[in-house]
User: Fold this.
Amino acid sequence: MKLNKEEIGRRYARALFEYAGEERQYEPILEELLQLEQVYQQIPDLKNIFSDARLSVLKKQKLVDLMQQNVSPIMQRFLQLLFDYQRLDILPEVVTAYQHRFDQMTKTYHAVITSAVELDDQQVTRLQAALATRLGANQVLVETKVDPEIVGGIITQIGDQIVDGSIRTRLQHLNQVLLNN
Assistant:
């Protein structure tokens, strides 16, 4: 059975996370992974370059050498490992999986809050505190979005859970109830 990129990324992330834990380097490694992910975002073809059979191993190694500059010895070895096993194309999946493990360990949640109008800092802070209490979280990182079509209220998304407290949804439910009677 062939594994998909996400599963392979999770396996490499787990190994890196465990090693980072042994070295007490969870957060510095996460920061380096996020920086490398930015490189992948700035150069979208980088994934393809590493999986392209037309490019020589020496040229690919030169790219890896450039990526290894200004990172810790742990990350240098990890990048070399990914290169040696021809897995550098899954680095974004590794970053996602590592971030997830780190968030679980630190009880950090990421929330997307959609409202009809822009929320001020005080409102966001109160929502963060309420969510942290409800989730038993140490930290809730909030991203806000504005969608005037929800009319009022908020929609909160944490992971794959969505709590829809929008007026638009309440009006739709009321409409369905009235039409069914």
